[in-house]
Design goal:
Shape: flat
Number of helices: 4
Largest sheet: none
Structural class: mainly alpha
Order of helices and strands: HHHH
Distance between the termini: 13 Å
Radius of gyration: 16 Å
C-alpha cells in the first residue's frame, strides 16, 4: 500500500469515525456519552497512528535485521505515549472512569486495528515480491 492510498484511507477513517462519534453523542443518546475533551483524545490517537505508521513503513523499507526492531519500537512508542497521555489527562480532567475507559479504548482500538491492517497489507506486498 503506497503512501497516497494510506493517506486517503486514513483521511476517510478520520472523517467517518469522527462523524460517527459526533452522531452517537448528539442523536442516539439523550445524555452525553463522550468524555470532556474527547476530540483532544481523538486527535492525539490520530496523530500517534500517523507517526507510528510512518516509522513502521520506514522500518519495512530499510529491511534487514533491524526491520522487526523498528516495528516493535514503533508499537512500544504508541503504548508509552498513550500511557503518558492517560496519566496527564486523568490528572487534569475529572471524568467518570468507566466513560473514560470506553471512550479512550474505542478510539485506541479503532486506530490500532486500522494501522495493523495497513501494515499487514504492506507485508503482504513484500512477501509476493
Amino acid at each position: 500500500m503506497g503512501f497516497t492510498k494510506f493517506f486517503l484511507y486514513f483521511f476517510l477513517l478520520v472523517i467517518i469515525s469522527s462523524l460517527s462519534f459526533w452522531s452517537i453523542d448528539h442523536f442516539l443518546f439523550s445524555q452525553t456519552v463522550l468524555i470532556p475533551y474527547f476530540w483532544l483524545v481523538f486527535g492525539f490517537m490520530a496523530t500517534i497512528t500517523l507517526l507510528v505508521y510512518l516509522i513502521s513503513v520506514w522500518g519495512l523499507k530499510i529491511g534487514g535485521d533491524y526491520q522487526s526492531h523498528i516495528l516493535l519500537a514503533s508499537i512500544t512508542i504508541r503504548l508509552l505515549l498513550s500511557m503518558v497521555f492517560i496519566l496527564i489527562y486523568t490528572q487534569k480532567v475529572r471524568v467518570d472512569s468507566i466513560l473514560f475507559i470506553t471512550n479512550f479504548f474505542s478510539v485506541y482500538l479503532l486506530f490500532t486495528v486500522f494501522e495493523i491492517y495497513c501494515l499487514l497489507r504492506n507485508l503482504r506486498h513484500q512477501i509476493k515480491k
